[in-house]
Amino acid sequence: xxxxxxxxxxxxxxxxxxxxxxxxxxxxxxxxxxxxxxxxxxxxxxxxxxxxxxxxxxxxxxxxxxxxxxxxxxxxxxxxxxxxxxxxxxxxxxxxxxxxxxxxxxxxxxxxxxxxxxxxxxxxxxxxxxxxxxxxxxxxxxxxxxxxxxxxxxxxxxxxxxxxxxxxxxxxxxxxxxxxxxxxxxxxxxxxxxxxxxxx
Length: 200
Description:
200 residues, mainly alpha, Serine Threonine Protein Phosphatase 5, Tetratricopeptide repeat, 76% helix, 0% strand, elongated
């Protein structure tokens, strides 16, 4: 999950930076955004956020860049085990762009690390609303429910994942595992033994 997120975020940041550099508009805002882009490349997240925020105040098209810089800094904080700082930055990113499923995904991943499963479930639900066809969010929810031994909800989420892709390896394996758990937990029924026949 971590590698995929970093790759997606790097691609998004690269596209956003390229878009910012090519678009016409407020030249001063473009210059400041380029400074923010350079700061992001240098992983100077504080400067990147400050520059993108200033550019966004001059031209709204740079708001997305601010959100991405917050996500990048949050990722950096999470790697340093500074989970509350990471959550604060992700809250800012989501306030700027509430339709970004990746921000909810990243926030949920941190919530799992701090064992806040209820919030993680809620964030994955928001990610599903932002990106309805994405199977991984159902898989993550099924995983959390499975961790909590909530087999009915794990099964429901897993079935939702399988509806998106019936051959998804993770969902297929989870279905088999959940079925075994259900079988093992099923109440044992005693087969009635027939009474011996009476001889006349």
